[in-house]
Amino acid sequence: MAVYTDIPDDELALHLERYNIGELHAIKGIAEGVENSNFLITTDNGTYILTLYEKRVDPADLPFFLGLMKHLSSKGITCPEPIEMRSGESLAQLAGRPAAIVSFLDGISLRRPSSANCRQAGEVLAKMHVAARDFDIRRENALGLAGWRPLFENSRKGADGVLAGLTELVETEIGYLEANWPAKLPAGVIHADMFPDNVLFLKNQLSGVIDFYFACNDLLALDIAICLNAWCFEPDWSFNVTKAGALLAGYQSVRALTQEEYDALPLLCRGSALRFLLTRLYDWLNVPPNALVTPKDPSEYIAKLRFHQGVKSPGEYGLHQLPLESK
Predict the structure, then answer these.
(1) Domain segments of the chain as ranges
(2) Under DSSP, is residue 210 helix (H, G, I), strand (E, B) or coil?
(3) Which residue, among 165, 157, 142, 167, has the nearest Cα to 285 in the 3D structure?
(4) Contacts of 309-314 spanning 24+ positions with Cβ under 8 A
């Protein structure tokens, strides 16, 4: 989340007249993240999130994102639900951008999730994978394997200025992953960005998942790898195997991993680390001036990539073997 586009007061007032949510009481820009312009708005009827979709988001993908949230909500997953206008549509134009309003979820994101929190994250990730099995819209992963080399080309000139030797590191890793990437693992709809700041907790219990704007169809175990990178490293970038084992056990309690998925975890974690290294590198070098946003340092994911390059077996992630049975 971020703020790149300002909304004129008169345009916002006219926009809200399209909804049955009452008159505006307050609006506040949300600074976190790097993708879209987001605002917390309060009206007669409550609190909502207003999103303006910026240039990196393809408008053709918006029916997938909004439809997925509506679908998951109908399946009992607590996530933002798109608010329909009087016309019955969820998507409109505002300040020259596609725009939507979604429900607001109570809860806070945790800076230092515990092992118990990691287990809950694993459980809800698996529940989303199961709930989305019958979602009938597809979206390819624009930031999957095929997108990594083109993405790096947009940052190549500045890469070694961030870290000496980074160009060689990335080129070698992309080549290795292209040659070894698994192609036949179970696939479906994945969140693809389920970091702790996109998961809310109330009284230490998981209360909701937000920000589905990277969701797509890809390998289900890639989503697990993204979470291992996001949830299971400490602030000094050291890997916490206890948290990783808890996250995997939570996932496994809902949806059984196949042996092939389990065996592929080290490779998928490398791919996940490279994906976020590349997008953070791009944002670090290309953030628009005067945007109310702080780009994230790519150095974190350089360190994570190097860790995964040294992993010899999937048991190093804390789940030493697959249970004979899973729920």
Answers:
(1) 9-103, 115-317
(2) coil
(3) 157
(4) 309/173, 309/270, 311/266, 311/269, 312/266, 313/266, 314/262, 314/263, 314/264, 314/265, 314/266
Contact assessment for residue 254 and residue 131, using Cβ atoms and an 8 Å cutoff: no
**Stretch (H or E) spanning 185:** none
Task: Single out the residue of 201, 217, 220, 219 nearest to residue 209, CA to CA.
Answer: 201
pLDDT tens column, 89-125: 999 999 999 999 999 999 999 999 999 999 999 999 9
Fold of 9-103: Phosphorylase Kinase; domain 1 (3.30.200)
Single-letter amino acid, residue 281 = L
The structure's pTM equals: 0.92
Backbone dihedral region for residue 26 (phi beyond 0: left; psi -120 to 50: alpha; all else: beta): beta
The CATH number assigned to the domain with range 115-317 reads 3.90.1200.10
Give me 284's structure tokens: 């670090």
In DSSP terms, which residues pair with 99 in a beta bridge? 52, 92
Cα–Cα distance, 131 to 75 (Å, whole number): 6
Element of type H or E holding 221? helix 220-231
d(CA 122, CA 74): 20
